[in-house]
Amino acid sequence: xxxxxxxxxxxxxxxxxxxxxxxxxxxxxxxxxxxxxxxxxxxxxxxxxxxxxxxxxxxxxxxxxxxxxxxxxxxxxxxxxxxxxxxxxxxxxxxxxxxxxxxxxxxxxxxxxxxxxxxxxxxxxxxxxxxxxxxxxxxxxxxxxxxxxxxxxxxxxxxxxxxxxxxxxxxxxxxxxxxxxxxxxxxxxxxxxxxxxxxxxxxxxxxxxxxxxxxxxxxxxxxxxxxxxxxxxxxxxxxxxxxxxxxxxxxxxxxxxxxxxxxxxxxxxxxxxxxxxxxxxxxxxxxxxxxxxxxxxxxxxxxxxxxxxxxxxxxxxxxxxxxxxxxxxxxxxxxxxxxxxxxxxxxxxxxxxxxxxxxxxxxxxxxxxxxxxxxxxxxxxxxxxxxxxxxxxxxxxxxxxxxxxxxxxxxxxxxxxxxxxxxxxxxxxxxxxxxxxxxxxxxxxxxxxxxxxxxxxxxxxxxxxxxxxxxxxxxxxxxxxxxxxxxxxxxxxxxxxxxxxxxxxxxxxxxx
Length: 512
Prior knowledge:
Elements: H1 3-20, H2 26-50, E1 56-63, E2 68-74, H3 76-95, H4 104-123, H5 127-148, H6 153-186, H7 193-196, H8 203-220, H9 229-236, H10 239-264, H11 266-292, H12 297-318, H13 321-352, H14 368-381, H15 388-403, H16 405-430, H17 446-464, H18 467-470, H19 477-480, H20 483-486, H21 489-495
Antiparallel strand pairs: 1-2
């Protein structure tokens, strides 16, 4: 069993052990889950080292009659996201230790199965294996929200499932079209991504295929106007559910665009660049304004996610090396910073039984440690220097400027809006008149400090040493996403400039 299979198997085996330990006391179940996630982190760190010399591949025939293979592959991008998944898994277990008191075994079973599906999405290079992992993610998250969520949990769980499942149908239709076209052209059935990238599709066919894939992935990111499920899901989910949703599930949509949609349909991608960039920039401002208008802590953070992910998608749309690195950095930074804000929102709700800013005020005196963490994550969210968010946004804005000065200027102005809601969430909670409703709040314990501290350390490390993320990306962005250099006429028309760095022409085989 290779390290790639182990990375998929360990959380699944952890789920099985949690189920078997369900009849024992709850702390035994929690300990088993924590052990499984810690082992997962160790394997993910080993994967980072293993891919330093090139991609790591495991491939076996599975259902040869229809061309399905058990094909796992890790390059720098996959390894980074797998490590992020493992770290978020540890934090999720720690933060749920005291919050989840009912059906503890079932909760950890679903959570570990969710991590299994996410890792499979990041490692699969057979599109049916990828789609299996994609659908596997939906069921555990549905139950995490629907069973352990808050007041409107069932409504939010159903809405999440319907939106994301409907999007995946569009994605499946698009993938199957490429599959059958490849079979018609070669006489061979194969779901392998490397094979399907060789399919000859007309510009019109690529446009429609990319549209199907884009809808499926845009729902999960989510991009405006396909975002309406996100605030409800985040608001009603348990703390660990919000953490995994923000830190990992939303990243699978961006990853799908990078790994599948762009390489399979390079001309379709180019045609959609204006739409991608337009939705991304609009999302930056829309998410920030919507966040500022919220009175619910978790809904504020949920809308801020839409704004931050606008930077990620814009990094892909500008199609150069700076934008690509910024997109990957922001994928990681968003998972850490926004995840930290959701942890704090959950800890406050656990202590006060409310998420309303109108009930908070002057809490710093009672919970100074939690207040200090909130200050850090608020500053990280607005992109203060010394945090990973600053470097990621700098890359994206730089990539936008290299494409067109006005695009960089507009994007840079969007950073100001993050400061508005980030400072508001801190001031409304920790300062101002002291709330008379909450008189005996207890500050964070060692498990909560550890969970929050892990995220803080990683954001600071990335802020001062961004190469910890960018170095594993040892290939040019147009090798991973050959679409970036295939045809830039639409991009040039949109931005009013010729293609620049990172836009060289590559064949589809160059991704492998």
